[in-house]
Structure formats: C-alpha cells, structure tokens
C-alpha cells in the first residue's frame, strides 16, 4: 500500500491546497467541506466542478471520504496522518493556556501524586478534552521492610522509604510460614535493602539468595521470593494512571455508538489495563507524539486521537507521560504545544524535588 509520504509527493499544488483546506475545515467544524465553500477560499480561482474533480482524486487516493451522497468531504485516518506529518502548523503556546497550567503549580510542597492530579485537571480544563497523566513509580531508597501475618493465606509487607513514604501491600505467603520465618525474611531483606530502590533491591536479593542459600531456612527463602514476585507482578503496576475530563468527551459525542465506545475506553483506562502500553507509547519516541484512531491499540475502540509526551527525571530517564485524548478532529496545532510544555514542566518540577 502506498504510504502517505509518497502520496503527498505525488500531489500537485492545487491538490495539496484543496486537501489542506478540507482538513482544516473539518478540524474547525467537525463537518464535511464542500466544493462551493472551497471556491471562496482557494488562492487559485477555479470552478466548483474543478474542485470536485480534485476531491474525487483525493478520495480515490484514500485521503478523503464522502460521508453522504452529494455531500462534501472529510479526511480519512490516513488523510489526517498525512496532514499531521506534513502540513500541520504548530503555533506557540498561548499565553492564557500557559498561565492556567502554571497556576496549578503554585503549591509544589505537596506529594508528587497531588501535583500530578492538579496537572491532569488543568490539562483537561485547558484543552476541553480528557487528560491522561502517568505518574512515576516510587523509586526512593528503602529504609525498612516488615512482614505482618494477617491470616494463614494473607500477609502484609510494609515498605518504609527514606523520604518518609510508606506503602502497604497485601500478598499470599508460602504455605506453612511462621512468625519466625517472617522475621527472618524481613531481617534478610533489611540487611541488603538499605540505600537501594525497589528495582535495585530485586536484583540484589536474587544475587544474595544465590550466595547465601544455606544461611536462611526454606520457608524464609520462600517468603523472600514471594515478596519479589509481588513487586514484579504485572497485575500490580506501581505506576498510576490519572484520568480527568471524561465528561468532556462524553458530552461532545451525540452518536450513541460513539458514546458506548468512549465509555468502553474509559472503563478500560480506569481498570488500568493498559498503563504499561501507555508509557511504552511515550517511550518509543522523543517529544510529542500523535496517535490517530486505530494507530494504537490503547485508543482504537473510541476512534479518538491521543497527543502524548514523556517526561523525565533529573537523570534524563523517562519516568512517566502526560497526554490529551479527544476526537479525531482535535485542534492539533494548539494541543501539541500544551502537552509539550506540560511534560517539560512536570519533568522540571520532579528534577527540582530531587
């Protein structure tokens, strides 16, 4: 299949202008653009019949579609992709938008989660879409670990971090665990945990288990390994996905089928099934990325678009992402600088916090 770049190169100036005007009109109004409308805006004075011929050629190329007989044209997903890649004019961040985003950062003394909640709310308010913020997992060094038995098949691990953050996580302990094996496992972990993050601890403990298998009894070793399995479990994602502005999308769609698709999308998001996929989208490229419709599995059900950018910590490591989801006729030229600025701002604030 011919890609959009090749198609763009094959188009003449008139075809490119007609295509650009149709897409811009669609992004502005959400409706099809007709030939008579274009005759009033094209730089070259041509007849409506000539424009219709050009639009038919663009439709044959797969760039435009005709939603109704004798109606105007709207861009296809491939047409939108070609427009975004080759014709989109991204402006500077609007001063008013910048001020609204900056205003949410006035209080930077709270925890990171609260800050990112405010960022997500601000993004939704400024863009009138739905915002997505993927918060980073907690990577502070561990200060202390303790296991607490709750029942024969339930136990709690208490993680105390050097920055004062505390997490309690439930898990299923090995069969036959005793208070003694719990204490021994905790002592073993605390001996190697100091100064290490959870990610670093997993690697260190595996090495220690290999080196000191004879120094801990079987039940204690099983306890340690169960704890590691909990921390590495794909269903217990340490990252947190913050979703705001759901009503902005639900209120913007009148078609019941589209409403059902968007509800499905947000139900999936709120169950956090695709958090890892969301972060991967951002990690696959530098800067802002745009995904239209079915270009990624995360949002293919809704027929929506996603504008997403990763943010980095002080070590220039990608630790999370911010994004905006909206209809395919999103105002990309305005949304891209908003997402870009917000991602850079979040990265700077995280770096300043150390």
TrEMBL record:
One of its GO terms (molecular function) is DNA binding. InterPro entries: GAF-like_dom_sf, HrcA, HrcA_C, WH-like_DNA-bd_sf, WH_DNA-bd_sf, WHTH_transcript_rep_HrcA_IDD. Signal peptide: none annotated. GO terms for biological process: negative regulation of DNA-templated transcription. SUPFAM superfamilies: GAF domain-like (SSF55781), Winged helix' DNA-binding domain (SSF46785). Residues 115-336 form the Heat-inducible transcription repressor HrcA C-terminal domain. Keywords: Repressor, Stress response, Transcription, Transcription regulation. It holds the Pfam family HrcA. NCBIfam families: hrcA (TIGR00331). Belongs to the HrcA family. Negative regulator of class I heat shock genes (grpE-dnaK-dnaJ and groELS operons). Prevents heat-shock induction of these operons. This is Heat-inducible transcription repressor HrcA. It comes from Shimia haliotis.
């Amino acid at each position: 299949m011919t890609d959009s770049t090749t198609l763009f190169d094959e188009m003449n100036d008139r075809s490119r202008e007609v295509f650009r005007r149709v897409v811009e009109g669609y992004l502005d109004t959400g409706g099809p653009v007709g030939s008579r409308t274009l005759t009033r805006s094209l730089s070259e004075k041509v007849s409506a019949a000539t424009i219709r011929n050009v639009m038919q050629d663009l439709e044959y190329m797969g760039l435009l579609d005709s939603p109704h007989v004798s109606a105007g044209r709207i861009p296809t997903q491939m047409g939108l992709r070609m427009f975004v890649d080759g014709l989109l004019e991204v402006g500077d961040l609007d001063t008013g938008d910048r001020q609204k985003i900056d205003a949410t950062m006035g209080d930077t003394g709270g925890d990171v989660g609260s800050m990112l909640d405010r960022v997500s709310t601000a993004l939704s308010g400024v863009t009138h879409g739905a915002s997505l913020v993927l918060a980073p997992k907690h990577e502070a060094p561990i200060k202390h670990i303790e296991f607490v038995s709750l029942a024969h098949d339930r136990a709690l691990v208490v993680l105390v971090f050097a920055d004062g953050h505390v997490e309690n996580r439930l898990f299923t302990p090995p069969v036959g665990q005793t208070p003694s094996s719990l204490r021994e496992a905790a002592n073993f972990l605390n001996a190697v945990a100091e100064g290490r993050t959870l990610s670093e601890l997993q690697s260190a403990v595996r090495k220690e288990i290999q080196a000191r298998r004879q120094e801990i009894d079987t039940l204690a070793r099983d306890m340690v390994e169960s704890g590691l399995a909990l921390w590495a479990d794909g269903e217990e994602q340490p990252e947190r996905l913050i979703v705001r502005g759901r009503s902005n999308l639900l209120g913007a769609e009148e078609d019941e089928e589209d409403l059902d698709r968007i509800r499905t999308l947000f139900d999936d998001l709120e169950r956090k099934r695709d958090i890892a996929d969301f972060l991967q989208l951002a990690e696959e490229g530098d800067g802002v990325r745009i995904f239209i419709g079915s270009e990624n599995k995360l949002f293919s059900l809704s027929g929506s678009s996603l504008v997403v950018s990763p943010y980095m910590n002080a070590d220039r490591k990608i630790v999370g992402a911010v994004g905006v989801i909206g209809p395919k006729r999103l105002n990309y030229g305005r949304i891209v600088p908003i997402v870009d600025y917000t991602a850079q701002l979040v990265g700077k604030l995280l770096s300043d916090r150390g």
